[in-house]
Amino acid sequence: MSQDKSNGHNIEPELPAGVQVEEIEIPVPWGHVAGRWWGPRNKQPLIAIHGWQDNAGTWDNLIPLLPTSTSVLCLDLPGHGLSSHYPTGMLYYIFWDGVALLRRIVKHFKWSKISLMGHSLGGALSFMYAASFPDDVDSIICIDIASPAVRVPENMVKATGWSVDKILEYETLSENKIPCYDYEEMIDIVVDAYKGSVSRENCKVLMKRGMAPTPAHLKKNGYHFKRDPRLKVSVLAMMSLETALAYAAKVKCRVLNIRAIPGQNWERLDYYMAVVDKLKETTDVTYIEVEGTHHVQLNSPENIVNIIEDFLEMY
Prior knowledge:
- The protein is α/β, with parallel strands linked by helices.
- About 35% of the residues lie in helices and about 20% in strands.
- The protein starts with 20 loop residues before the first strand and ends with a helix.
């Protein structure tokens, strides 16, 4: 990482003996998708996908706890972390775009069957990919989510007009109107936004890829958020429970679903459990509840690492 190494905010921490990680870029038509490839490069990795408005740093505390022989490619989704933003005029349909992105990456590396691990949005994308390409997935690990069905349709409908206007507003946001903050102030904002789900120290972990020094030509001191502000609008990508259940019926691979308690305060927790129950009708599902916040993989990785390691060793 190149940003601001002088003050130590983005310097890679000391890794445990034998643990290795490399920054990579995968070409896509609008630029590149960035990633952190942990472990050996001579074997096909588990693909790890972060949550909404997070980045690949969400796995930085968990992956080093896994055996050093484990290969994991942690992606920054488009518009997040170090990945390219979409061009002006394009919209993010976050629960759908990721399915096409994963397919691009699979074709880029010429992989056949893959395994996926995702937190929140990333878990929903893992579910969607496994349902869309049921013969091409060995297993998925979903952390504190089951599918993109997380809100009642009435609330999705109600928010549509606002969402479209907000996207157009963000699209015309001039560079000199982008807010800038000093480092500690930015961390304060992030801590407040996560509402207790991520500790202050772990907010700093996420911000290694989530913030950058303000460009010199703006003649402002401080930092700005790297993520595309258009990502703040997410409701256009959600789906009804009926649709999610139809996708769930197509999943063939083994599923590990880890639900954090208290975890995320989902608008409809019954939707979550309905999808898990539907998956159990057609495939091998391991559902486990653990103590932790929604970002359990970042805040309390020791609570889930053995569960994940056992699941990965089963095949």
